[in-house]
Write a structure and sequence with these properties.
single chain; mainly alpha; two-stranded antiparallel ribbon; 26 helices; 2 strands; 67% helix; globular; coiled coil; transcription; nucleic acid binding; transcription termination
Length: 445
Amino acid sequence: MDAVIRQIVDKIKQDIIEVFELKLDEVIEKYDRELQEINNKLDTLVMLAKFDNLGDEDARPSSTRLLRVHGHGAAGQLYFIFNSKFLLQYSTTAVATTCDPTHFLMNYLVDSLGFSKEEAITTNTKVTRLKPTENPQLVLNFFEQSGLDKTHIGKIVSAVPKLLLCDVDKTLKPKLDILHDLGLSGSDLVKVITGSMSILKNTEVSDMKSCVSYLRKVLGSDENVMKAVKKKPCLLSVKGCERLRTNMLFFQSIGFSDEEIKKFIVQNPYTLLASPESVEDKVDRLKKDFNISQGSGMFIHGVAVLISMKEATVDTKFGVFRDYGWSKWDIIKLVQLLPYCLRLSQERLRAALNFYMGELGLKPAYLASHPTLLMFSMKKRVLPRLELMRSLVEKKLYDEDYNLYTVLLPSDPKFYQVYVLPYKDMIPDLCELYNKIQLHGKAKK
């Protein structure tokens, strides 16, 4: 029974602390509800207790109602502990409150980092429930001194609030020094910190140094290490380096040069961080099911695509192509030329096939041979350009049977140079039309 009372007391104490964080009216209202819950628990335990206001008006803070329990034993203990704690909290001076770490953190999150009240409470709870400490203030000061602005600090605290519990000198400073030495700063630094939440908090400094040393040896320069780490921060963990080392040995064993592997790690480190079993399985499937040789420039990209997708997802994408009359060989041709097409969502894939095959009448064989067409954005590239070409055809400035691929392939500046500038004098509003089309496409994003 005493244990139950202690639980009740602890809960009440927490509510009292909230007086310093929430509006007094809200706390009083919440406190009234808690009183009712306490009554119910005491009734269940067949404890006879009475709750009323303190008789002495001068002995309590103004506009606040206190709990008074009559009786002895556990109930009397509840009265004594609660009354003492309540009066102690309300007699705390403003200076003492301001120095409280919790109070400081709440104010800092809201006033300096722009957190909403709800976000601040959530973050504060994640920190204070684990370890009452003054570290949050020290950590925040350290981040500021390290050159991070309020926006950067806000992103870090929001993503990894437990960092506020880390020791600055033993944990954070040595690790941030390592990242700074690689050339990481500002938003890039934030991306690495938030991209792998365990790096700053759990990885040992010595392990992190060993990982950086290994990556420098494999990739040849800090620039390459920084590029790879920005994409996959877990490369700085022991597990990440072990996976990388194992998969590198596998690719070396099947004939890939160190230079090829280095280039692939920089471009797509995710693949070499997959489980070795998965890597070997996908390599085998590319050779057998898609007839892609290791000498193909798309081989390593095919491995990356298959590793990033579940088997069922790949089969579902194949089913979409079959719905539009594609043969097995059409699909294989597509994957051989551009495996990244398999990463398109079903919705986007169907929209592209509906347009190219349904409206323009293109055949599967043509699309399989020109897979880039499927990758282009319909709203921002395909439809705006075809609308402009329609204007040129109507003005008899371009043949109606123009090559679709050569129109859609160029970059925006190149397209403007080839299909807009030569005709701007013949169609005075052509440039304006092009700009409107471009803006319309971006608005639909």
